[in-house]
Amino acid sequence: MQILQVELGERSYPIYIGADLLAQPQLLAQHIAGRQVAIVTNETVAPLYLQALETALSGYSLTSVVLPDGEEFKTWEVLQQIFDGLLTARHDRRTTIIALGGGVVGDMAGFAAACYQRGVNFVQIPTTLLSQVDSSVGGKTGINHPLGKNMVGAFYQPQAVLIDTKSLMTLPQRELSAGLAEVIKYGLICDEPFLQWLEANMPALRELDQAALTQAIERSCAAKARIVAADERESGVRATLNLGHTFGHAIETHMGYGVWLHGEAVAAGTVMALEMSTRLGWIEPAERDRAIRLFQAAGLPVVPPKVMTPAHFLEHMAVDKKVLDGQLRLVLLRQMGDAVVTSEYPREILSATLNADYAAMAEQLKN
Ligand code: NAD
Ligand code: GLY
């Protein structure tokens, strides 16, 4: 087992990474304060892993809340089900909420933990690649609003993150690819040598090779932990973690939550951010193409949906959380492995980026 630390002073916490960690109750026990535990999961993950976790926690007074599965359920109404479960079973302020599932469950359970009785203990057990490399670390929690992704939420750090790499064995290929989008993101924003490693290891990752997956998870979590420790509340460098997300969130919102997976939208959105970086003369077209090939090798879309016009993008991007004083800030690459957040770009470059022919680009690069 590997243990990484997210260094946030008194709110520091460990990330445990290894195989079969779900079956090790002592790991969890040290992060549970009282006698009550509420497990929040969903109807897909529950039949796979809930019983094992309940068995590991059999010494506690347990409540399990099983939510419907899907991004479209990341709402106020469904969040209420968590509070219903906690209050019905009379959970007090010493209770610990455990999120067992992907990013949707993690974001919602974390937000519930931030709100319930003004804040209770919280542990993340992420079960998708995306949640293991990104959403479970760093304390961003929340829900969607019909007008914008993740628009309602709180920064609320967990007491621990427990990553059982074996849980990826049941993950559908499409979800694995979605997680790889966030893995590739770390290479692009802050770790160029990692891109080379990913180029060499993409087939192994897609074949669920445990050693390769563990290495990718460790390297991604280490990058995320470093960035979060430097800028917990996203006043600076943390915003670079949103490479491709401004374009990507526009795709998710426009297409309807859950139609494009978050990681898929991030992949196509990142290609747009790289195209813009190319048009600004910051990276070479060959570097943009290198990233497109890597997304393609990961089984990810690299072309935004045909139905979306530049006007659609601009409309959705105006509600991005990186908009400050009416100015849209974008994460772009100054060079491979070096991201920057800026609102200083000629508007015509953004417009050209939104009008670019991504389908032609992708076709040319297809293996
Ligand atoms: P998800 O939570 O919807 O999970 C994807 C699918 O996989 C779901 O159907 C889920 O039930 C299923 N699943 C989960 N674990 C499984 C397993 N082990 N085996 C089989 N099926 C399994 O999606 P996600 O990609 O994990 O997360 C996306 C969400 O995370 C989005 O809402 C996004 O906004 C959020 N996010 C948050 C942050 C953050 O910092 N908080 C960062 C990135 C993404
Ligand atoms: N996923 C972006 C962040 O955690 O800041």
Automatic annotation (TrEMBL):
<feature type="domain" description="3-dehydroquinate synthase C-terminal">
    <location>
        <begin position="179"/>
        <end position="323"/>
    </location>
</feature>
<dbReference type="GO" id="GO:0009073">
    <property type="term" value="P:aromatic amino acid family biosynthetic process"/>
</dbReference>
<dbReference type="GO" id="GO:0003856">
    <property type="term" value="F:3-dehydroquinate synthase activity"/>
</dbReference>
<dbReference type="InterPro" id="IPR030960">
    <property type="entry name" value="DHQS/DOIS_N"/>
</dbReference>
<dbReference type="InterPro" id="IPR030963">
    <property type="entry name" value="DHQ_synth_fam"/>
</dbReference>
<feature type="binding site">
    <location>
        <position position="149"/>
    </location>
    <ligand>
        <name>NAD(+)</name>
    </ligand>
</feature>
<feature type="binding site">
    <location>
        <position position="245"/>
    </location>
    <ligand>
        <name>Zn(2+)</name>
    </ligand>
</feature>
<dbReference type="GO" id="GO:0009423">
    <property type="term" value="P:chorismate biosynthetic process"/>
</dbReference>
<dbReference type="InterPro" id="IPR056179">
    <property type="entry name" value="DHQS_C"/>
</dbReference>
<keyword id="KW-0963">Cytoplasm</keyword>
<protein>
    <recommendedName>
        <fullName>3-dehydroquinate synthase</fullName>
        <ecNumber>4.2.3.4</ecNumber>
    </recommendedName>
</protein>
<dbReference type="GO" id="GO:0005737">
    <property type="term" value="C:cytoplasm"/>
</dbReference>
<keyword id="KW-0520">NAD</keyword>
<feature type="binding site">
    <location>
        <begin position="127"/>
        <end position="128"/>
    </location>
    <ligand>
        <name>NAD(+)</name>
    </ligand>
</feature>
<feature type="domain" description="3-dehydroquinate synthase N-terminal">
    <location>
        <begin position="65"/>
        <end position="177"/>
    </location>
</feature>
<feature type="binding site">
    <location>
        <position position="182"/>
    </location>
    <ligand>
        <name>Zn(2+)</name>
    </ligand>
</feature>
<feature type="binding site">
    <location>
        <begin position="69"/>
        <end position="74"/>
    </location>
    <ligand>
        <name>NAD(+)</name>
    </ligand>
</feature>
<keyword id="KW-0547">Nucleotide-binding</keyword>
<dbReference type="GO" id="GO:0046872">
    <property type="term" value="F:metal ion binding"/>
</dbReference>
<keyword id="KW-0862">Zinc</keyword>
<feature type="binding site">
    <location>
        <position position="262"/>
    </location>
    <ligand>
        <name>Zn(2+)</name>
    </ligand>
</feature>
<keyword id="KW-0057">Aromatic amino acid biosynthesis</keyword>
<keyword id="KW-0028">Amino-acid biosynthesis</keyword>
<keyword id="KW-0456">Lyase</keyword>
<dbReference type="GO" id="GO:0000166">
    <property type="term" value="F:nucleotide binding"/>
</dbReference>
<dbReference type="Pfam" id="PF01761">
    <property type="entry name" value="DHQ_synthase"/>
</dbReference>
<comment type="pathway">
    <text>Metabolic intermediate biosynthesis; chorismate biosynthesis; chorismate from D-erythrose 4-phosphate and phosphoenolpyruvate: step 2/7.</text>
</comment>
<feature type="binding site">
    <location>
        <position position="140"/>
    </location>
    <ligand>
        <name>NAD(+)</name>
    </ligand>
</feature>
<comment type="similarity">
    <text>Belongs to the sugar phosphate cyclases superfamily. Dehydroquinate synthase family.</text>
</comment>
<dbReference type="Pfam" id="PF24621">
    <property type="entry name" value="DHQS_C"/>
</dbReference>
<dbReference type="InterPro" id="IPR050071">
    <property type="entry name" value="Dehydroquinate_synthase"/>
</dbReference>
<keyword id="KW-0170">Cobalt</keyword>
<dbReference type="GO" id="GO:0008652">
    <property type="term" value="P:amino acid biosynthetic process"/>
</dbReference>
<dbReference type="InterPro" id="IPR016037">
    <property type="entry name" value="DHQ_synth_AroB"/>
</dbReference>
<comment type="function">
    <text>Catalyzes the conversion of 3-deoxy-D-arabino-heptulosonate 7-phosphate (DAHP) to dehydroquinate (DHQ).</text>
</comment>
<feature type="binding site">
    <location>
        <begin position="103"/>
        <end position="107"/>
    </location>
    <ligand>
        <name>NAD(+)</name>
    </ligand>
</feature>
<keyword id="KW-0479">Metal-binding</keyword>
